[in-house]
Specification:
This protein is of the alpha+beta class. The protein has twelve helices and five strands. The chain has a five-stranded antiparallel sheet. The longest helix has 18 residues. One of its GO terms (molecular function) is DNA binding.
Length: about 270
């Protein structure tokens, strides 16, 4: 396991991100268009970066835009990436695009969540799936991973919960490691306490991330939805709010599921 550096300021933060991404000084220098010597001097505090160099290094390390602002501040520069409320008029085109995507995905479920998995928007297909769950789990802010795995949420209807739940938890954990966030770490720990232990020895049909979500429809044990998921984000966003949005779409894994979703949504 890579240890965290003890230095502070920009030098310590740069080294921390480089180690987190498992990138050598030489590789970072090549990516950022500078020299290994300069990167070494920056990490030791012997050199001070210019604003454009901070941005280039952050881009080269795939640092999220929120944390890029923190790097700029640590280096003595003003933040470069705004964080606008989602209802800001400037983000109207983004909201419109998301609404069209959600509607266009019908009758299949889809949601937009923020960096912590909290619900930003959902279509009628997702609302159809959540009928009958504890209303307390639907009170804002609605956390989608919690809603999926909570005993009063969708968990009792997930037929392969012991396997599929760990797909969700591993994704939350991976994000909290890649882009450290205390709220994500706490969420992952909470989810672990909600679900059965990870199977010690997966069965012969184990498919890992490829396994579809098997969800019972309503109260009928003989009807099941088989769903696979896709994740989409704004890869070129320069606004913190937009960059942290994720669109999760549920797709039918077979024709029977497609037909049942059409029936559910109406």
């Amino acid at each position: 396991m890579i240890g965290e550096p003890t230095g502070g300021g920009f030098a310590g933060a740069l080294r921390q991100w480089r180690l987190r991404r498992r990138v050598s000084q030489l590789e970072l220098a090549v990516r950022a268009g500078t020299t290994q010597r300069h990167v070494s001097f920056l990490e030791s505090g012997r050199s001070t970066p210019g604003r454009s160099m901070v941005v280039r290094l952050a881009e080269s390390l795939e640092v999220p835009v929120r944390e890029r602002n923190e790097l700029l501040l640590a280096a003595g520069f003003a933040p470069a990436y705004p964080q606008s409320p989602l209802d800001d008029p400037q983000l109207a085109p983004i909201r419109g695009a998301l609404d069209r995507i959600l509607r266009g995905h019908l009758p299949y479920p889809a949601v937009v969540v923020d960096r912590h998995g909290d619900l930003v928007a959902a279509n009628a297909g997702f609302h159809a799936l959540t009928r009958g769950v504890d209303p307390a789990l639907l009170a804002p802010p609605v956390n989608v991973p919690r809603l999926l795995l909570h005993p009063r949420g969708l968990a009792p209807r997930i037929r392969n919960l012991d396997e599929w739940a760990w797909h969700v938890i591993d994704r939350v954990r991976a994000e909290s490691v890649r882009n450290p966030d205390d709220d994500l770490r706490r969420l992952a720990a909470e989810l672990v306490g909600l679900v059965p232990p990870r199977p010690a020895h997966p069965g012969p049909d184990h498919l890992g991330f490829a396994v579809p979500l098997r969800l019972r429809v309503g109260d009928r044990d003989d009807r099941e939805l088989r769903l696979v998921t896709t994740l989409t984000h704004f890869g070129t966003a320069v606004d913190v709010t937009v960059a942290e949005l994720r669109l999760e779409a549920f797709l039918p894994a077979d024709e029977a599921t497609a037909a049942r979703l059409t029936e559910l949504v109406g």
